[in-house]
Amino acid sequence: MVAEHEHPFLLLVDKKISNIRELLPVLEAVAKAGKPLIIVAEDVEGEALATLVVNNMRGIVKVAACKAPGFGDRRKAMLQDIAILTGATVISEEVGLDLESTTLEHLGTAKRVTLSKENTTIVDGAGNPDDIKARVQQIRVQIEETSSDYDREKLQERVAKLAGGVAVIKVGAATEVEMKEKKARVEDALHATRAAVEEGVVPGGGTALLRAVAAIADLKGDNAEQTAGINLARRAMEAPLRRRFFVGAAGRPSASQPRRKWHHTLRG
């Protein structure tokens, strides 16, 4: 299930939320503003979660909640990343802020936030671009200074999330039927691209390899062993297409026997 909210407020909290009374002031302010609210916290549970669900179902205020990424100090750092990205202030008792005194000025905003079971995507956060660049540079300095491969990997992930972009593809057409068809084609292309990124496999890759043969067609080695290696690489690049056309006689798919299409559900 995917929930998508346009122009929401974002409330960032560095603790678990279980008491609804703490949330009431900011919920009332958000309801008056008429915008959705995304809560990012260590967890939302008990009475607070139940009340938010009821309010959401009754349409009093649109609310979605997700767990803050990471653990311990890394969670605090990533919450601060999100705060800088969206123009929010992290509500933390360590800096003297509590939920009951939270106002709209403490909330961040974005053009769109999409939430699924595994991922949360923030599009066009309202943070100051200069602040975001400074944060990225700060993390890159930490990458250079750390001696831990694990810490370096996590820091690089944070840089990617801050410095990376989210593309919005707009599909237009003369009729609704045509628009749905175009949208389906775009989704197919996105799924194929995602599969290539995650699994290293993309339909048509055999054709790309065949074209790559031209790059080494006239290449000669300095000795017999190098030449044999070049020829081996050339034959390997041709192998997918060679198999496609010449195994039909053995009862497997060939040019005259179209392949059966399999559709897989790709993880987002």
What does this structure look like?
- The chain contains eight helices and six strands; from the N terminus they run ββαβαβαββααααα.
- By secondary structure, the chain is of the alpha/beta class.
- The chain folds into four domains: 3-127, GroEL (3-Layer(bba) Sandwich); 128-166, no CATH class; 169-202; 204-268.
- Strands 1, 2, 3, 4, 5 and 6 form a six-stranded mixed beta sheet that branches.
- β2, α1 (20-33) and β3 form a beta-alpha-beta unit.
- The longest helix has 24 residues, at 176-199.
- The radius of gyration is 26 Å and the shape is elongated.
In short:
With 268 residues, this protein is α/β, with parallel strands linked by helices. It has helices spanning 20-33, 46-58, 72-86, 129-145, 149-163, 176-199, 205-212, 224-246, and strands at residues 3-6, 9-17, 37-44, 63-67, 108-115, 120-125.
